[in-house]
Amino acid sequence: MKLLEFLGFIIKYLLIGLGIAALFIVFMPERFSSQKDEKPHTSQTTQPIIENNKPQQGFADMLESVTPAVVGIKARSQAFPLNSEACSSRLQALPPETNACAFLNNGSGVFIDDKGYLVTNAHVLDKASTIVVELTSGQQLKAQVIGVDVESDIALLKVDAEPSHFLSLPETDQSRVGDWVFAIGTPNMAFNQTVTQGIISSKFFSRVSHYIQTDAALKPGNSGGALVNAQGELIGITSLSTQNEQGEKHYQSYAIVANNVAHVVEQLKEHGEVRRGWLGLDGDMTINLDSISMELSLNPEQKQRLQQRINQLPYGKGIVVTGINPQGPADQAQLQPLDIITKVNGKPIYNSIDLISAIWNLPPQSTVNVEYMRAGKKYNQDIVLGQRG
Q: Which residue among 147, 212, 306, 344 has its CA within the 20 to 30 Å range from the CA of 153?
């Protein structure tokens, strides 16, 4: 009897358990589905849902706002007699009955304010007597020359109109190697305005300006156009240079840094020319001992003494004065050949480019402090700059 009661007890609770399990299967089937039906975990590979199917615009909006500030420039010279020396190269002949020829240059330009001032390269205006500015709308305007600076290759023009778009010249240069840039200009008279993209490849100083080298493609006719950054800010005025290698022309794309252009524009507005300071000396790098010795005709003893003085300086620092212009600023300050200039206004000097760079934007009558070595001793001298001819 007890055995039957025990078995009944077991069967009772077994049935209760099966009933509970059946309820779970009915109301929560996903907990008991086969693993074969489970989908793999895909949280790391699932692509986001694209809510906006609008195509990417890239830099189109930015370029649409800045390109109208860049114009085409056509510069025509006066007529020269066909038998004159001027008619010997790169000319477009006038009709035969005129017995004459004329230069016809084309390039690009950039409006820099809403008063009608624009800049271009000086070489675009070579021998020009008539200058026509063509807007992106097709409108043509005559331009007058305010001033030309051949050394920096910058010219300032003005039209009798108020442009709707312009690109301001910045006070400082914030561009860096690796920045995205866009070159805007008119490649030649047969084509409309173009835009090319690249990066800043290098930055350097040469002659009287700082330059940007870029791999954004330029063509003849781009000279004087705009180089802008990804925000549409003007960072340079494009200038194309050429090199001849084995009879072929190789084009190199450069731009004059925009804040240097601002300095030139300010001078051209005020004086019609750029007035630059001048030290009145020639120099060579301290590491070029052999060339210095040949230039100054040093004997072995003098060469050895110069070598000893150079050895006292950090490697490559300073330039050796090789020539003094009579009655020039350096001569009046009593500098001498074989003096080694090491600093100008506290800035270390390693080569002649550093020396020019230290005074390139200083006007005549500015005072600079020159630190130099003579016979192993250090000297400081204030020099009043003259005017570069």
A: 344
